[in-house]
Specification:
Largest sheet: 4 strands, antiparallel
Shape: elongated
Mean pLDDT: 79
Helix content: 40-55%
Number of helices: 7
Strand content: 15-25%
Number of strands: 4
Order of helices and strands: HEEHHEEHHHH
Length: about 210
């Protein structure tokens, strides 16, 4: 949950301005840096067709359920690395796709009431659903460099981050922020990794606007 700082009002006429003392400066510093320690802002949005169940009737020994097909929109802000591994995928393999839209959607449904169900739950890539993980380039970069630890040296760690971002962009799960983060890492660490996919993703998104 984000908080907004109250604006500083100008001093009233006749009120003498004074420099903040050491305690006040420490308080201001803590306030200004508190947001830096927050988990990178990554949000999962999903839209598609679902089934909703409703109990009907009031019989003592008989249960009847009514099924209604509805369009559902889900939004979930990832709060920790543990949530990421629970929601997206336990492990990434940079040499083969491991991200499946169906798995992500099913995990989102696990957090809902038991009265909702996704049709064709076994499908890895349900055509009736779209999913997007949104975040700024800074958030994606920080997430993969600070939270996804590989035990590798910094240069190799950056290469793994780019490979993982490529996996998320391949099935159109991530957006511009992920592409920009990948290009930034390739340039900064002079990685031997193709830029083509990330540039094309940005161009396609620009053409769609």
């Amino acid at each position: 949950m984000s908080t907004q700082e109250q604006p500083t009002l100008p001093a009233e006429k006749g009120e003498e301005y004074r420099e903040p003392d050491a305690d006040e400066q420490d308080t201001e510093k803590a306030t200004s840096t508190a947001g830096d320690d927050a988990f990178p802002s990554l949000t999962v949005d999903a839209r598609g067709v679902a089934e909703r169940f409703r109990r009907v009737g009031d019989w003592e020994h008989t249960e009847a359920l009514e099924t209604q097909e509805i369009r559902l929109s889900l939004s979930h802000e990832i709060q920790s690395y543990g949530e990421w591994t629970d929601l997206i995928a336990p492990e990434f393999n940079p040499h083969r796709p491991t991200v499946r839209k169906g798995d992500i959607i099913d995990r989102l449904f696990d957090q809902l009431s038991e009265h909702y169900e996704r049709p064709s739950a076994s499908s890895d890539d349900p055509a009736t659903w779209t999913i997007n993980i949104s975040g700024s380039a800074a958030a994606w970069r920080r997430f993969f460099l600070e939270y996804v630890q590989t035990g590798a040296e910094e240069h190799e760690h950056a290469y793994h981050a780019v490979a993982h971002l490529s996996q998320l962009l391949g099935p159109d799960i991530a957006g511009d922020g992920a592409a920009l983060a990948a290009l930034d890492l390739i340039n900064e660490y002079d990685l031997d990794h193709s830029r083509e996919q990330f540039v094309e993703d940005l161009q396609e998104d620009a053409d769609d606007e």
